[in-house]
Amino acid sequence: MTSKRGTAVSIVSLSCLALTSLLSAQPALAQPTGPHPRALLNADMVTAWRAQRSDPASPAARSIARCDDAIANPEDYADGQYQGFRWVEALSACLVARAITESAAHTDAAKVYLNALFDDRSTVGDGLGPAYNGGVGIVSQDTGYSMRTHGVFAALGYDWLHDALSAAERQKARTRFAQWVAFHQQPDTYQRAQPGANYHAGHLLALTLIAIGHADEMNAASAGTGSALYAYVRDEMWGEVMAGGVAPRGPLGGGDWLEGWQYGPLSVASYALAGRAMVEQGEAVPFMADYLAQVLERYVHGLTPDDRMFVGGDTGDDAPYLAASALVLNGVIAGHVADAVRAEARGELARLDLPAARDFMLFYEALAAAQPGSASPVERATLPTGYLAAGAGNYYARTAHDPGATWAVSQCRGSIVDHQHQNAGNLVVSRGADDLLVDPGPYGSLSTLTGNAPTMLQPHFNDNYQPSQGAFGEWWGGEQVPANQATRFLFARSTASGVHATRCDYTGQFRFRDVPSPILSASVRDVLLLPGDTGATTLVVDRVATTGAYASTPSPLLLRFRALDSWSESGASASTATGGSTLLLRRVVGDASTSVASVPVGDCDGPRGSCRAGRFPASELVAEVAGPNPFAVHALDADATGGTPASIDVDSEGARRTLRIARETRPYVVTLSVDGSAVSAYSAPATPSTHVVLNPPAGPNVRVVGTANGDRCDLTLVAAGDGFASPPLVFALGDDCGATEDSTQPPRGTPPPPPPPGDGGVGGGREGGMGGGGG
């Protein structure tokens, strides 16, 4: 299967099978049976809701009020609005209300909107759903977007309302489910099996709920069909596709969302509920508890110091960051997670004090509120200051977990999903609430020029792509690029002293399909965040190695730095100020020609690779670094306006450059090479300082030997098993020339997953007594 942007995914046994052949080929396997509801509801939850009902601010009371409003004012809910979300809002509220009150009025109201999801397209009673798209069905609306509304909530409503439905309504449901499953099974159905895509999240939850709530009745109507559907959901949708999503090089590892966090909240919550529903049936989904723990941890690291969310992909929002989302946290709370993770998600909700849900998200809030346990704050004092979301290739760094910290995100991943931007090497920086280096890339951008990533015009690219990066750094033609050729971080580390370092190898971004760049052999960007007392210095090191063919079509390395307020240039430096902070940018090594321009607000229409537009006003400093082997080091100082930036001196010897940086009371020495060759020796002042060697001798450990030489230390670096962790090599140097390792910050441990839930008194068990249906 191929996405709209050409991202390939593989579906092992279904690529050429229609639903009928699938069902006839599969052996009869056990599927959930017994009383309804089977998924996401049990007696303990109902008890919890009833206890909360007296509080008008509780999700239970608000669900009852919302359902009562739908009963009293049906005209306000007649229009399904976008993709049926208004009907989802009414149905889900009435499902919760019915569970609490057992009221016939709430039952009848829920059935109205269940039938709307089954039958209608735009208006209650229009009957246009089944015939939509030539009879494919309403869930195929917008290439399958409606699977997350009509598909998910009709399946949920059918399960929770099952015993109140007439024989005719159940028969209608069987017809609709068959139609919708057939649409899912079409080999070209958009992103039905692409983990990390919002469309996939809708398909996974819908098919999971249909299989749990309806497979036994499919068997009754046609022997083996329900068992085959359930086996497909369990073995392929979960056992292969989702398991692959959290595997190495899968997009989900680390809990980030490559499409961007406009799409992430509902998608993550859908995964959480689908995983919980499977566990309720006694199925082993061993990776989901860890995944949701990672979602929470990344959520915390992904917040700016003033608690806004990193975007990381497409959004239509005209601001640098998004408002914090309660839906992500409610999804974690409602999912099958360790008690400690659920408690911390609740603690984060309480800390953020986010507005109560006013739409369909009230249902997720209600599910979360019905889970046992209390809130516990995320202990930021013991939380690492760096976090790598490996699946998305996003590295989050901050000087501290406090509102005045400097915070940065560097990105490095080839294209996997739609809505992902072509921006390996991208960087953003904030200081407290002040957004200093920003990415204003508009929705749908396929241009590297809309963010802060490096690029170079490639002669083998189509004109339409130039001068941007390509989209083939991870997949091409259904095959994953070999790991050593893929766009990826070569290292991403945070040390005990608070140094953060990443190296992005984005050479793969200059493949066109399966053809590598003819003019360059390597392109890397190092980002080094050096904390100070009240500010920080970020070094950006850009290095490109070219081939002999470069001389025939020479092009400069294109760098850009985008800010909310205008850049003021002065020689090799420029500054911009936002709020109470100033960003000073200096080119400290290398030559470049620079210019400043306003970023036009708009969309990326026309040639994809040359778009410069932004979704909000911004100013950009553009630097062009000439070949034949472009190299430059830029220092970005984030300080309080009127503060003193770091002093930087550079020593040169051959290809080696040593930067002596005094960052307030913290001295640093950063050593690197222009051509990427290993640095095996250098000299530095014999004063206490933190040293970072970006190009140490090859190997996972390097021994540092310091020898006093007057007022300096001569340092020798040798690869050795008993040496310090590397790369990069980070250590503290004393005035006696002794070296002490600046060790890597240990990752935060993940609590073990909870045991599978038992029967809570509402759900039914599976055939063979293999587990309870409660949750």
Please give a structural write-up:
The chain folds into three domains: 349 residues, Glycosyltransferase (Alpha/alpha barrel), CATH 1.50.10; 258 residues, Distorted Sandwich (Beta-galactosidase, Chain A, domain 5), CATH 2.70.98.70; 102 residues, no CATH class. A hairpin with a 2-residue loop joins β15 and β16. Helices cover 27% and strands 23% of the residues. With 775 residues, the chain is an alpha+beta fold. It is built from 15 helices and 30 strands. The longest helix has 24 residues. The radius of gyration is 28 Å and the shape is elongated.
CATH superfamily of the largest domain: Chondroitin AC/alginate lyase
Helix percentage:
25-40%
Strand content: 15-25%
Rg over CA atoms: 28 Å
- Give me the side-by-side strand order of the main sheet: 10-11-12-13-20-17-16-15
Biggest β-sheet strands, sense, barrel: 8 strands, antiparallel
Overall average residue pLDDT: 93
Q: Which shape, going by the Cα principal axes?
A: elongated
**Tally of contiguous helical segments:** 15
Total beta strand runs: 30
- CATH class division of the largest domain: Mainly Alpha
**Distance between the ends:** 34 Å
Quote the CATH topology of the largest domain. Glycosyltransferase
Uncertain stretches? 1-29, 759-775
- Number of structurally distinct domains: 3
Which structural category fits the helices and strands?
Answer: alpha+beta
- So, CATH architecture of the largest domain? Alpha/alpha barrel
